[in-house]
Specification:
By secondary structure, this protein is of the alpha/beta class. It has eight helices and eight strands; from the N terminus they run H-E-H-E-H-E-E-H-H-H-H-H-E-E-E-E. The chain has two domains: about 45 residues; about 140 residues, Diaminopimelate Epimerase, Chain A, domain 1. The strands form two sheets. The protein has a six-stranded mixed sheet with strand order 1-2-3-4-8-7, with helices on both faces. Strands 5-6 form a two-stranded antiparallel ribbon. The longest helix has 23 residues. The chain is elongated and about 100 Å long.
């Protein structure tokens, strides 16, 4: 019974690992790769540039599992740049996994001369405030020089670079399955080796001349040594993300920068 109980842990362990891995099945249920990705209301891009950017947005969206959208405008309809970006995302129901789901929107606001990145869903935590700041620092000089195509390309590359880590690979169901099987296999090997451990104690081990043989051992406490180590507090919050609420009540992260 004990041996059977041990091996029942193997499939259970595999299921736990698979359930803990990021959910990728049906991730693209809300994503339409043929849908509009560039909304150039300020007419900053040529038709050929729009097509090229759209291709790059779709390609990066598939890799990162984030709905990437670019918007330019001369009129924010009386809203702040941040609120316009958040509301535009929600009003169009963007999101790679679902409506109002995972995604990032880049807004180039020519009215207020501000560029803004709005994150939603899983992107809020995956694209931290410091990440947004770094991307904006790369984008702003291109906007100042009216190199709008290059600015958008920097945005796409920046999002792609952020997501190029171990977490991305875990989103692949095949890799997640292989990891689960590897861990389960290791568990089986360890348990099988443990079951083959040689028993060195028998029924006569503690008998001498037909009598029980017991050894006496006394430990004398002589002194103690205490080591003190200062633990530094980590007050670096560069990986955190601030969150705000749009007009429709959905959460967004991100930030903006003037140019």
């Amino acid at each position: 019974m004990i041996k059977k109980g041990k091996y029942l842990l193997v499939p259970m362990l595999s299921l736990i690992i698979l359930s803990a891995a990021p959910n990728v099945y049906g991730d693209s249920i809300n994503y339409d790769e043929n849908g509009q990705k560039v909304y150039d209301y300020a007419e900053l891009l040529s038709d050929s540039e729009e097509r090229e950017i759209t291709e790059k947005l779709v390609e990066t969206s598939k890799e990162t599992k984030l709905d990437l959208v670019v918007v330019t405008t001369n009129d924010t309809q009386g809203k702040s740049t941040s609120l316009y970006a958040d509301d535009f995302y929600d009003d169009n129901g963007f999101g790679y996994d679902k409506k109002y789901g995972d995604g990032v929107l880049l807004l180039i606001d020519m009215e207020h001369r501000e560029v803004f990145i709005s994150t939603a869903g899983d992107a809020i935590s995956r694209v931290s405030d410091s990440d947004v700041e770094d991307i904006l620092d790369e984008i702003a000089p291109f906007l100042t020089n009216e190199s709008y195509m290059q600015a958008v390309e920097e945005f796409i590359e920046g999002i792609d670079d952020i997501d190029d880590n171990a977490f991305t690979y875990l989103r692949n169901p095949i890799i997640s399955l292989l990891i689960a099987l590897a861990v389960a296999g290791a568990a089986v090997f360890i348990m099988s080796m443990s079951s083959k451990t040689k028993v060195t104690v028998g029924s006569t081990t503690y008998l001498e001349g037909g009598r029980i043989k017991l050894g006496a051992r006394i430990d004398h406490f002589t002194h103690t040594t205490t080591t003190r180590r200062k633990i530094e507090n980590d007050n670096n919050h560069s990986g955190s993300s601030s969150v705000r609420t749009s007009s429709s009540g959905h959460s967004h992260g991100g930030g903006g920068k003037s140019f």
